[in-house]
Design brief:
There is one protein chain. Helix content is about 50%, strand content about 20%. It has helices at about 5-15, 20-25, 30-45, 60-90, 100-120, 130-140, 175-180, 190, 205-215, 230-235, 250-255, 285-295; strands at about 50-55, 55-60, 95-100, 120-130, 145-150, 155-165, 165-170, 195-200, 220-225, 240-245, 260, 270-275. The strands form three sheets. A five-stranded mixed β-sheet has the order 4-3-5-12-6, sandwiched between helices. Helix 1 (about 5-15) crosses helix 3. About 25% of the residues are buried.
């Protein structure tokens, strides 16, 4: 088939004009060159494609069959070219982002809102899963970029810090009063309360387990919850003490819906930001997004 590709444009032009002379003028090549190309194509395929007469040429039955397929192929190529041109003109691209549901709601959305305003024709796919899974998707080249907690040992990852986050413990005022009535002292709140934590696959949970080990804290009663939003909601209805990211409950602390429980020492702060692999060449769309988030500062 490859040896016939140079002849197909000539074949189509002759079929559509019905005349070798007209085809030669349209293609800006000589009539003998047209005739030779058609002859070569017929030899390669092994059949006559045109019937010749004094009035011009007409397609044979086999020629009609081939023409329909070749015409369709050229239309597909033309459509592809137009799509590429339109993509360049409009800045159309595809960006695949991995992020946990918590970071997606509280951190990523303001960035996406402004990025979409600046680049409205970029198609965005968001894959919600814990940070460890996001890093694996990056390594497998299944996403372009991830919003994650700072990876400590990940290879070939470029990390751009956006902000620091701080883990803290919150509960309702009534829940803390009830603990006091039961004789639970401030120094033993975590051991003798209902402690609510994210599930074990979450990086925040792993960070807090390390904190508990370092400070010899053993909770007797705890509940695992799959999302930060649910964790906060459970705390608001007085189920127990929730371990949450402080930046995501600041409003609730300020208005008194939740009370922050001070502990010493405090858990170490962590960095969150965007990460992408430097193992492969970045797409134009990814480069646009990297330039965007390095220069954009959302209103808090």
């Amino acid at each position: 088939m490859n040896q016939n590709l140079p002849f197909y444009k000539i074949f189509c032009t002759v079929a559509e004009t019905g005349n070798i002379s007209k085809a030669a003028k349209e293609l800006y090549i000589s009539q003998p060159a047209i005739s030779k190309s058609i002859q070569k194509l017929e030899e390669n395929i092994g059949t006559r494609l045109f019937s010749r007469s004094s009035r011009g040429v007409t397609l044979t039955e086999e020629g009609e069959m081939l023409y329909e397929h070749v015409k369709s192929a050229f239309e597909t190529l033309s459509l592809g070219e137009n799509k590429v041109k339109k993509s360049i003109e409009l800045g159309i691209g595809h960006l695949r982002i991995g992020v946990s549901s918590t970071l997606c709601k509280y951190v990523l959305l303001p960035y996406l809102k402004e990025f979409i305003r600046q680049y409205p024709h970029v198609h965005i796919s968001v894959f919600c899963q814990p940070t460890n899974q996001t890093l694996k998707l990056l390594a497998d080249d299944r996403i372009d970029i991830g919003m994650v907690g700072e990876p400590k040992a990940a290879k070939n990852i470029v990390f751009y810090s956006l902000q620091e986050i701080e883990d803290t413990f919150v509960a309702t005022r009534d829940y803390l009063k009830n603990l006091k009535v039961r004789g639970v002292s401030k120094s033993h709140l975590l051991e003798y309360s209902t402690l609510m934590l994210l599930d074990k696959g979450n990086m925040s949970r792993q960070h807090m387990e390390k904190y508990f080990q370092e400070n010899n804290i053993e909770a007797e009663d705890y509940i695992e919850i799959s999302s930060m939003d649910l964790l906060i909601d459970f705390a608001k209805i007085g189920v127990g003490i929730a371990c949450v990211i402080r930046e995501f409950v600041e409003k609730d602390i300020r208005n008194g819906t939740l009370v922050e429980i001070p502990f010493s020492p405090k858990p170490d702060k962590r960095k969150i930001g965007f990460a992408y692999s430097n193992n492969r060449k970045s797409s134009k769309t990814l480069c646009q997004f990297i330039h965007f988030y390095e220069n954009y500062r959302p209103e808090l």
